[in-house]
Amino acid sequence: MTSAAEGEAGRPVKLGIRLSPPCLLLVYRPARSGAALRLRKMPVKSLTATSNCARVAQELRERHRPHLDAVPQNKLLKMLRVLQEGLSGGRVEDILPRVELEFRVDPDEDLNQLSTELLDRKKAAMDEHFNRQVVRPDQPEFVYDVRQDFDGPKQHSGWDDDGDDW
Amino acid sequence: MAASGPEEREIDYDRPTGAGPLTVKVIMLGDSAVGKSKMMERFLLDDFKPHQHSTFAVNLFRHRCTAQGRDVLVDFWDTAGQEAFKSMHPSYYHQAHACILVFDATRKVTYKGLSGWYQELRENRPKIPALCAVNKIDENPDVTSRSFNFTEKNGMPLYYVSASKGTNVVRLFTDAIDRAVTYKLDPTDEMDHILEELERD
């Protein structure tokens, strides 16, 4: 069995892009021990200004299986968004900060109002944390029914305002 | 499982139960990205296979279990992106026996969102048991030593949950099923039934 951080193809080391023509670059260490780092170039031909990046990511994952299996979804989506913005010109240094914002979760933002695609980017950012923490059924430390009581003295959350009428 | 088997059929949850399992409906409410589906997935594991409702954009999860010594068939109703309207179709609430309200331990805005969801719940189902869960406690452990006016004022149990670690997930769902069964066997609100009878004509 391979862990989440190491796919069948090996361990991803770096993910990068080339803007023109759009191409995703993956530096990985092959699963065979002692092997040197390899570079895989993955042209992203189907990407247009209006593409759904999640769909393009899925195509890439399938075409290049198993190389992208261990690459977190939000990292992949972020690279595709930079490529997408780059289709209309511009430098990576200028595009990246804009794209970073799309994947940042502002705790005060009302995510209910986002389009499905924008919401998926926020969820992908949250999933990165989730996937680091998650204990899955195939892991030896997995327990199905984890019960923990938090009965100690409670302080008020500070999340209620005077005007709140529950 | 045969496609036409009893597991696949849509259920009239109010139908008096003769032979076969007791059927209950448990609904999930809360803002986008609080982890409602992740919690469902952690509870159901391999049975996490959503069915789309035939008419409405909701995800249904059917779960067979034992509660209070009875064979129980639970349908969990989970939102499928309607949070944008901050409102669910009345059919979402129709015949529900219990509700789980969820907010995110890392985002106060989702706690604020509970009032709207709760108000809509009570307009549709004035008396069904409601349970509240704060998810992602692994990302904000401090929240486990905090209290919240929303649950206190509404006399609602609060579950401190982590869908990633599994903390209190099974407890939350089994308690919700238990309360749903109790409500179904002894509904406290006769009005609900009268209203539903009228709707069916």
Would you give an account of this structure?
The complex is a heterodimer of chains A (166) and B (201). Chain A is flat. Chain A is an alpha+beta fold and 166 residues long. Chain A has 4 helices and 4 strands; from the N terminus they run βββααααβ. Chain A has one domain (10-133). In chain A, 33% of the residues lie in helices and 15% in strands. In chain A, β2 (23-30) and β3 form a beta hairpin. A 3-stranded antiparallel beta sheet of chain A has the order 1-2-3, with helices on one face. With 201 residues, chain B is of the alpha/beta class. Chain B has 7 helices and 8 strands. Chain B has helices at 36-44, 90-93, 108-112, 114-124, 149-153, 169-185, 190-200; strands at 22-30, 51-52, 58-67, 70-79, 98-104, 130-135, 146-147, 158-160. A 7-stranded mixed beta sheet of chain B has the order 2-3-4-1-5-6-8. The radius of gyration of chain B is 16 Å and the shape is globular. Residues 1-6 of chain B have low confidence and may be disordered. The chains are: A alpha+beta (166), B alpha/beta (201). Chain A binds chain B through residues 105, 107-114, 116, 119, 122-123, 126, 129-130, 133-135, 137, 142-148, 150, 152-160, 164-166, and chain B through 31-33, 38, 45, 81, 83-84, 86, 106-109, 111-113, 115, 118, 138-139, 143-150, 153-154, 160, 162-171.
